[in-house]
Amino acid sequence: MKRQDTSGVGVSIALTIIFAVMAVLTYQTDSEGNPLAWIWMIPGAMVIVGIIMTIIEANKASNEKARKEQQQKAAQAIKHDSSFGTNDLKLYFDSSSSKVTICATTTSESKQEEIKDFIRSRIVETDSYIVAVDHLNHKILKAKNDNGNISKAICNLDEELKTLGITVNNFSPALKAYNDYAFVTDDDNEFIAIVKPESIQVLRYSDIVSISYEENGNNVYNKSLGGAVVGGLLFGGVGAIVGGNTAKATQNKEVSSMSIKILLKSTSNPTTILKIYEGETLKTKGSIDRTHYEDLMKEVTGIKDIFSIIIDITDKHSSQTVSSSTPLMSSTGSVADELAKLLKLKDAGILSEEEFNSQKMRILYL
Question: pLDDT value at position 230?
Fold first, then answer.
């Protein structure tokens, strides 16, 4: 989630006037009639800053108006029955022709690109791009305005899922966006597509071993297959657990990075990392940073909930499989032996906690 710029031309003008009044009221001279610059120089400097802010905001407003005009002009020439987006980027859908037109605009022009065999069913906007899902043609479209150019990616789910051994039937996707990621889930066919800024990753539910949340590189929350939840989504060591829109930070924190790690049953690609925040340190003692941090945590919670449900679904299938079969003593003993060996490697420091859990899940569920 990006910080929201709440300033505007009106706010900038108001601030300029306030500082100008302060400069006038604090203007004083010495006994010889010379101005005491040190008294009113700060308000005077802020007047200059206010004027600069006003010019910047006026320029932004002018550019936004120009982009809006370009987008309206383009819309008149595109056949469509629905649309989605902003003045910078808009998708125009024509259901009768089964196509979508992507339109990216600048202050001076608009560029368009037509995608055939695509019908709108679900659509969301992330921090920087739009994601649309076609449940009839089993496709995912990601589109972005890249400095006036159209950047897009199309995922054919039938092709992706074929490599995973899944044949899509009765595709009824759910689509949610958090931060700069979108998540397409299908509980009937049990797969998830993670739409990232750089790629679209498709996974079976059963591919996912665990999900963890980290702040400043430290693990705060973890949930894994067959295991209990470790830690909680906290604002501090004993802060309030995030669970709703009213969750508040109760402690002072300094956070420079926030990420979610998804552990997979794959040696070639064992982890997927979703970067939620990385940059200037957020100090929750201040109201602005605290509000931003709380908003970010709500998005972390949303992503956590998606993968927690997926893990619960996989766990339920595993328990049903175990209860419906009669394990042999020899196989049980073999599993126990393997787990004992892993534990020894972990105790010896050869395996990390994460590596131990990954290998444990492989033995138990593969």
Answer: 61
Residues 329 and 214 in one domain: yes
CA distances for 47 relative to 7, 12, 20, 236, 332, angstroms: 16, 10, 6, 40, 78
Classify burial at 4, counting beta carbons within 10 Å of its beta carbon; exposed 0-12, middle 13-18, buried 19 or more. exposed
Together in a domain, 50 and 180: no
Angle between helices 353-365 and 287-323 (to 10 degrees): 30
Cβ atoms 53, 6 nearer than 8 A: no
Report in angstroms the alpha-carbon separations of 185 from 86, 117, 154.
25, 21, 17
pLDDT for 145 beyond 80:
yes
Q: Is residue 81 part of a domain?
A: no
pLDDT at 321 exceeding the cut of 90: no
Give pLDDT tens digits for 329-359.
444 456 677 777 777 766 766 667 776 777 7
Give all strands (DSSP E) within 6-98, no chain letters: 82-85, 89-94
Residues linked to residue 186 through DSSP beta bridges, in sequence order: 191
pLDDT of amino acid 337: 72
Mean pLDDT score of the chain, rounded to an integer?
A: 82
Task: For residue 304, tell me if it sits in a domain.
Answer: yes
Q: What's the domain count of the chain?
A: 2
Q: Which domain holds residue 30?
A: 9-66
Is 281 inside a domain boundary? yes
Residue 1 within a domain? no
Using the Cα atoms of residue 152, residue 156, residue 157 and residue 161 in order, give the sign of their dihedral: negative
For the ranges 47-56, 97-106, 295-304, the lowest mean pLDDT is seen at: 47-56
DSSP state of 206: G
Report which of 208, 214, 246 is spatially closest to residue 230, judged by C-alpha positions: 214
Question: Which residues have a Cβ under 8 Å from the Cβ of 362 and sit 6 or more positions away?
Answer: 265
Give the number of other CB atoms < 10 A from CB of residue 170.
Answer: 8
Domain boundary among 24, 47, 66: 66
- Tell me, yes or no, whether 56 and 161 share the same domain: no
Regarding whether 55 and 165 lie in a shared domain, the answer is no
Position 328 scores a pLDDT of 43
Residue that finishes a domain, picked among 19, 38, 66: 66
